[in-house]
Amino acid sequence: MATAFAFSVPSLFQHPVSPSLSKGQAPPSSASSTLSTSAGFLAFLAGSTGAVRSVERSARRLSSRAKSEKTEKKKREPFSNKIRTVFGQIYSIFALPFGGAGNFARVDQGSVGVVLRFGKFDRMLEPGRHQFNVAVEQVLVVPLKIACIDVQPQMVMTKDNLTVTIDAVCFYRVLDATKVLFEVQNYKQALTNLVQVTMRTVVGENSLSEIFAQRPRLNARITELIDAATGPWGIEVSQVELKEVQIQQSMQRALAAVAEAQQEAEAKLIQAKAQRESASILAEASKAMGEDPAALQLQWFETLRIIATQGKNATVIVPDRIDPESALRVTGSGGGQN
């Protein structure tokens, strides 16, 4: 860094000097300002160089400290561990001409390897083929891809005291391989049991109708609770879905009867409303026809037309005008003769 600035510093001192100045005269004010600027720049450069040197010294101290800690750890190891380490190295040397013979570990893409040295975490391995000490080290491969757990059916009591059988599917992935290995003993079994318990809790907080009508809300609630609980394990639960909700045959018949009764009640209400509206309309029509006899006559002809055009009907001959009083007199006289 100091070398890069060394070529630009002399250019700051190259200021044109007027030939009219004599040896005893002072340089102009612009020359003095240039000198002061150059001096400040040199001071800044010296400070930057000192800062770089201090950072380098700090890095060297940290490196030496890490090396000393590693050396101290090796010194504190039991002598038997050192012997096993040497035997493992010797085995690696002799097995190398034969392709490794067990001292190479392969980590597939989408997974990560965790190396344990004497049962203690030592380092991580990226996907690929790695050599390790078979005498003192153990490699555990942890998949990081999205996995699926099929939750077995279980019987659950709903909020309205009805028994249902539910099953689900859970999608998850491992975010931290060290937490999965060292924070929980068997993370797959633990996650399966957690999903079952959470499903039982959430379904028990809702009625049967809410389970059927609001299934997305239940799925989101179950996913939220499980993801919050598995965060310290190094696992992320992306989705939990209820696959099937089964009820007993007797309950199915009861629900069908309830649905049928509701449909019939709605049909009767609709029919009653239609009759009420038609009655009000007919009342208005009769009032209008009473005021205008010709309208009543037209309606009568329309009724005759409908009767004549519907199906097999006999021909009906009726008078075009009927006087109610005359009809009553005829009926009365006929009854007297009989």
CATH superfamily of the largest domain: Band 7 domain
Number of domains: 4
CATH architecture of the largest domain: 2-Layer Sandwich
Biggest sheet strand order reads 3-2-5
Helix content: 55-70%
Treating each run of at least 4 consecutive H or I residues as one helix, how many helices? 11
Annotated CATH topology of the largest domain = Tetrahydropterin Synthase, Chain A
Biggest sheet layout = 3 strands, antiparallel
> What does the radius of gyration come to?
49 Å
Distance between the termini: 141 Å
Strand content: 15-25%
Q: What do the pLDDT scores average to?
A: 75
From the spread of the alpha carbons, the general shape counts as rod-shaped
H and E string? HHHHEEEEEEEHHHHEHHH
Write down how many β-strands occur, each being a DSSP E stretch of 2 or more residues: 8
Q: Structural class, please?
A: alpha+beta
Coiled coil: 244-278
InterPro entries: Band-7_stomatin-like, Band_7, Band_7/SPFH_dom_sf, Stomatin_HflK_fam
Domain Band: 102-259
Keywords: Coiled coil
